[in-house]
Protein 1
Amino acid sequence: MALQLEFGTVLVSATHNPGKASEIAALLDGRFEVLTAGALGLPEPDEVEQTFVGNAVLKARAAADASGRIAIADDSGLAVAALGGAPGVLSARWAETPEGARDFAFAMDKVEQAIARTGSADRSARFHSALAVAWPQGAVVAVEGTVDGTLVFPGRGTRGFGYDPIFLPQGETETFGEMDPARKHAISHRAVAFAKLRAALF
Ligand code: IMP
């Protein structure tokens, strides 16, 4: 079928972060050679969509059309029920301090304060990971993985990144910030999304 990916295909990762490109290559079982949009000098489109899938598709489409190669992009973040799904697609932006630094302790405080202002006792939250693969001037395949959990304040643990310390996945006793990284990688939103992508394309 046309939308299968052959072993050894060169994929463009629509990221300017070489670390993320190698993480994507590893999550795809090393089946593909992954080049970054940054290394190819492709422009970075503005993430203007309101959904994770929308932004992943926008980034994959832009990288595929500009490079003439099959491209893969991701978009992820934390949706908090009491905040109507915020920070959501703005998860990275909530970490920007007034001084222009990126600080997730600052972002997690902001989430705690925003929930407190609502007066809600609901601490449920969901991590989302959307992945999109786009063919140049052609089709796009998009999938989304999620993991449900509860927010804990103060955060716990120094592992992981981003909002990991405040996220206690459902059925677990450790936050993503405390958990063995292998356990996180087995149950995370990103793991679910990559499993769906593998099932769709390999
Ligand atoms: P992106 O690079 O636009 O996808 O930004 C994703 C945002 O969501 C970043 O700010 C991350 O810190 C946050 N995020 C996504 N996945 C995770 C995760 O697994 N743990 C903690 N934070 C995450």
Protein 2
Amino acid sequence: MTEVLRVEHLSKHFGAIKAVDDVNFSLKQGELLAMIGPNGAGKSTCFNMMMGQLKPTSGAVFLRGENITRLAPRVIWRKGVGRTFQITATYQSMTVVENVQVALMSHNHRIFSFRPYAHKLFRDQALGFLETVGMQDQADRHAAVLAYGDLKRLELAIALCHEPDLLLMDEPTAGMAPKERLALMQLTASIVRDRGISVLFTEHDMDVVFGHAHRIMVLNRGRLIAEGTAAEIRNNTHVQEVYLGGGQLYKKSEEGSINA
Ligand code: ADP
Ligand code: MG
């Protein structure tokens, strides 16, 4: 399988804090890869470096073999790296379908226009993206009145408008109820399957991670301490120590899995 993303010796230090410390991994086309780890492990810092928001202290990020380490976020985004934001970024005053239309206009380099025909531009295509995320029946509702889970699905539709071949999702299900979390990840997994895109995501809910990720990496204090399938990660004693030893955030369920 083709390698889409490769991270080599990536580090970010904030003074004495080694937020990310010599991280190495790669992501193949069509892969759904999870990065897990306790709060403060360095996950968001890692994501921000891949998206160009933060300059690494050292190391490099390669997109399909091209070094993108010091490129601006917009340039990286134009190369096909999409992201969904932890803080939902939609225009609340517009309808659901208009939000998707604006994203399509931007993708097609059209300046958003308030002229009378603007509401027709890309409407059919926008409805298609809404169908992909199961929101076509909410197309004409105002984004401001959407339930939180629906906003996150809208955000995913908007990210897809730019036809990314890599999606970075930092806690896409933060603030969602457990059922909604599973639904969003199921949807993401089906999009990965149908479109052959690659996804790297972080997530606190271990049911979501173990249920959907093809492969899992564990970050602790800036360092990658394990990588493997759900079964391998579950049975990894070092990982169990990190999650269980310090009593941080996670407890072991009766089935032997690690739950939030
Ligand atoms: P995670 O996303 O895994 O919870 P973060 O990447 O947000 O972890 O944070 C990793 C570490 O880096 C934490 O100790 C955090 O306090 C520190 N950190 C993150 N951003 C900054 C910053 N801008 N300045 C100083 N320290 C930071
Ligand atoms: Mg984070």
